[in-house]
């Protein structure tokens, strides 16, 4: 209970927000929605039915295709820059995006576990983290729904969810072609064609190709950070009657990247045992000043120069097919079926030691498959609206991990730590290889229902319940080889399979999620809401592929209380939203990195926070947006200090997150000229739950500017944009390895792009 007592003041957010809403009502006027040239509103499906975003009693950010274009959002992870409280780690690498919504994250990057923030593409849940990194093209809108969404969207929507909605086939012929290119050797081409095939059948086909030339100079090998991505999507929409439709979506994508982490040496605090960044003049290991245990130091400090003997490589293929069947069973009841299958395969290699020496080469492959099916009915009886359904998920993940140590390097490292005498390992061979083979199969069933009841003209009661049952089987086998000869040396072997450990490798559990909420609409354009939610994330096991015990993980349970308001003010020219929340987090799956392997343990945690968003259209052609988010998090880690123990803040959870944009358009040259500038600020944060100083990610500001010209017939647009305009060169993600060095990742440097788009 200590964390709750420390944060007890956070529950006063609701009262404060209700007080602020009173002022908002006074400023709003009686006819706030009867406006001309006001702020844009978007229809979303946050409640599994279409609603104006301002009528949803939850914190929702929605972005149309035009807004995404003006903001320069081109990938699934870049949406985080436009939504406070949302963060994606690993930036341009994109091989495993680690999402965080309001402090809720699963930053174990081994990939086989499901994140607690659900990702949906066209109503279908994507359970593989790697498959959620993709380029956005031919997109209709993106919806970011914050806070637990376990009732309607199921387990693993503990922190919230992001929905990417692609454009559907049309009954009229339309399409576009877009070309862009610029610095860093960037080039991309995308396009789409849509139209009727017959009286009842429409089709759409769209595709994308993009590339980036290497922009990291590697003094010990090939230059790095080269990307080649392509994707294609085909759709058919069959509408035999006005009441029934069937939409089939097939997509395939291929990602081919090379990449590099940047090296920094670390020492260990004598009390806590946590890593800290080693000063250049400190000879911590007795080998050289600023050096890691293997004797290497990066002296230039340039994030775009490295010296690595092996390139980082990532290659992935994703096949995704979704079928959405919708039919009106009566005037008030609709049936929806969403069927989805995903196949995701990847291969991965990293120079884990990040030096020109043959030290540690990490290699992994994965073969993932999933099928999920949702059937739901929803009805509208005027004052009473309801939705109910059944859900099924099957997912299977098969991974291999090859961790190969150069024996001379390993001898130096272990000798630096005092584990062996120098030279003890020499003569055993050239390389020590740990081969791990692990798999996890999940079968999940769920039933859910939710209602909305207008029990008075201005009041709506919302209630919902979901019950899920998960059956999970896990297998992990690790063997050690010296020069390909089986051995039981420094790391030993591990055999964790259902046949050998019985029930320990199985995790069968039922769990419930629920919601109870109250909405109040004192007048048109104003909504006040208060809600309580309970949601859960599936359990699992860790994968210690450099030695150690396989530890089971219990399910996470998150219980939240949230209050907020949405107000359309100043004759529809200002939208003012705010929310405050407190999370009680039981068995949070806390992540850290120990001995070059991920480690997850269950901890209790608390989150208190609030968000404010203001969108304004103060004059003809002007659009302004500002949003601020605050988080106060605590995880019960009990890290030793000189004066006792301390708790930690949750990883990837900056205390402050601000973003804003300003746009202006005006008639010129027979068409329209527009300019849009946006920026995001995040305060410092940590990459893992123990808050090692070497895992501290510094505060940073990223800004972008885009200038465009649209011809009078709106068929042709030219644009120039500048990305990372301040040339921020701070790390965006850091991994303390616990063996004397940290892996660092950086965003792309400042670059200029030009684009041309033709639409018909």
Automatic annotation (TrEMBL):
Residues 1-26 form the signal peptide. Residues 309-725 form the TonB-dependent receptor-like beta-barrel domain. InterPro entries: Beta-barrel_TonB (IPR000531), Beta-barrel_TonB_sf (IPR036942), Plug_dom (IPR012910), TonB-dep_rcpt-like (IPR039426), TonB_box_CS (IPR010916). Residues 53-160 form the TonB-dependent receptor plug domain. The keyword Iron applies. Keywords: Cell outer membrane, Ion transport, Iron, Iron transport, Membrane, Signal, TonB box, Transmembrane, Transmembrane beta strand, Transport. A motif (TonB box) lies at residues 41-47. The keyword Transit peptide does not apply. One of its GO terms (biological process) is iron ion transport. It is a multi-pass membrane protein. It holds the Pfam family TonB_dep_Rec_b-barrel. It is found in: Cell outer membrane. One of its GO terms (cellular component) is cell outer membrane. PANTHER family: FERRICHROME IRON RECEPTOR-RELATED, TONB-DEPENDENT OUTER MEMBRANE RECEPTOR. Belongs to the TonB-dependent receptor family. This is TonB-dependent receptor. It comes from Hyphococcus luteus.
């Amino acid at each position: 209970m200590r964390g709750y007592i420390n944060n007890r003041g956070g529950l006063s957010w609701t009262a404060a927000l209700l007080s602020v809403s009173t002022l908002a009502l006074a400023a709003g006027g009686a006819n706030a929605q009867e406006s001309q040239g006001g702020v844009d509103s978007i229809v979303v499906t946050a409640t599994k039915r279409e609603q104006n975003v301002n009528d949803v009693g939850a914190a929702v950010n929605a972005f149309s295709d035009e807004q995404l274009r003006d903001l320069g959002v081109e990938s699934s992870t870049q949406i985080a820059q436009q939504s406070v409280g949302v963060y994606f780690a690993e930036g341009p690498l994109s091989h495993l995006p680690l999402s965080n919504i309001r402090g809720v994250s699963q930053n174990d990057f081994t990939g086989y576990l499901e994140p607690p923030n659900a990702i949906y593409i066209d109503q279908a849940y994507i359970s593989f983290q790697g498959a959620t990194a993709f380029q956005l093209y031919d997109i209709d809108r993106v919806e970011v729904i914050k806070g637990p969404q376990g009732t309607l969207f199921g387990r693993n929507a503990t922190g919230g969810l992001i929905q990417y909605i692609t454009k559907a086939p049309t009954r009229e012929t339309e399409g576009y072609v877009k070309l862009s290119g610029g610095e860093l050797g960037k080039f991309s081409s995308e396009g789409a064609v849509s139209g009727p095939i017959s009286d009842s059948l429409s089709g759409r086909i769209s595709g994308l190709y993009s590339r980036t030339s290497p922009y990291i100079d590697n003094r010990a090998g090939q230059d790095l950070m080269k990307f080649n991505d392509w994707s294609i999507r085909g759709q058919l929409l069959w509408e035999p009657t006005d009441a029934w439709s069937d939409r089939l979506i097939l997509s395939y994508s291929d990602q081919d990247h090379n990449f590099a982490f940047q090296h920094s040496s670390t020492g260990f605090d004598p009390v806590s045992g946590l890593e800290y960044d080693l000063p250049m003049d400190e000879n911590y290991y007795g080998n050289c000043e600023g050096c890691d245990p293997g004797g290497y130091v990066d002296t230039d400090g340039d994030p775009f120069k490295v010296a690595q003997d092996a390139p980082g490589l990532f290659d992935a293929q994703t096949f995704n097919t979704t079928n959405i069947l919708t039919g009106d069973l009566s005037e008030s009841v609709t049936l929806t079926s969403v069927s989805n299958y995903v196949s995701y395969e990847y291969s991965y290699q990293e120079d884990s030691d990040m030096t020109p020496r043959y030290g540690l080469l990490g290699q992994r492959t994965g073969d993932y498959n999933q099928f999920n099916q949702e059937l739901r009915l929803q009805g509208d009886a005027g004052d009473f609206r309801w939705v109910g359904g059944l859900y099924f998920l099957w997912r299977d993940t098969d991974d291999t991990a090859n961790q190969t140590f150069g024996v001379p390097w390993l001898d130096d490292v272990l000798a630096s730590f005092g584990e062996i005498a120098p030279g003890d390992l020499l003569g055993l061979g050239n390389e020590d290889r740990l081969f791990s083979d692990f798999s996890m199969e999940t079968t999940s069933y769920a039933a859910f229902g939710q209602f909305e009841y207008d029990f008075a003209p201005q009041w709506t009661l919302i209630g919902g319940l979901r019950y899920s049952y998960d059956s999970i089987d896990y297998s992990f086998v690790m063997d050690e080889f010296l020069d390909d000869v089986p051995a039981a040396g420094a790391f030993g072997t591990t055999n964790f399979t259902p046949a050998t450990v019985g029930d320990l490798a199985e995790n069968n559990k039922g769990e419930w999620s629920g919601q109870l909420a109250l909405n109040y609409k004192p007048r048109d354009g104003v909504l006040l809401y208060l809600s309580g939610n309970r949601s859960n994330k599936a359990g699992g096991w860790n994968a210690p592929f450099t030695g150690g015990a396989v530890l089971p993980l219990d399910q996470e349970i998150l219980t939240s209380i949230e209050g907020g308001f949405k107000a359309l003010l100043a004759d529809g020219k200002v939208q003012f939203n705010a929310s405050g929340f407190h999370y009680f987090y039981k068995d949070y799956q806390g992540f850290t990195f120990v001995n070059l392997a991920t480690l997850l343990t269950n901890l209790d945690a608390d989150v208190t926070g609030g968000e404010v968003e203001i969108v304004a259209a103060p004059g003809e052609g002007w659009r302004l947006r500002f949003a601020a988010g605050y988080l106060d998090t605590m995880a019960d880690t009990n890290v030793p200090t000189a004066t006792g123990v301390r708790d930690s803040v949750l990883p990837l959870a900056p205390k402050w997150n601000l973003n804003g944009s300003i746009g202006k358009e005006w008639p010129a040259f027979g068409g329209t000229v527009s300019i849009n500038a946006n920026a995001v600020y995040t305060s410092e944060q940590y990459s893992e739950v123990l808050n090692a100083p070497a895992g501290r990610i510094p505060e940073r500001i990223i800004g972008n500017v885009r200038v465009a010209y649209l011809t009078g017939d709106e068929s042709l647009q030219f644009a120039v944009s500048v990305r990372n305009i301040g040339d921020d060169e701070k790390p965006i993600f850091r991994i303390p390895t616990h063996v004397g060095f940290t892996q660092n990742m950086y965003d792309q440097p400042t670059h200029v792009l030009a684009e041309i788009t033709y639409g018909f």
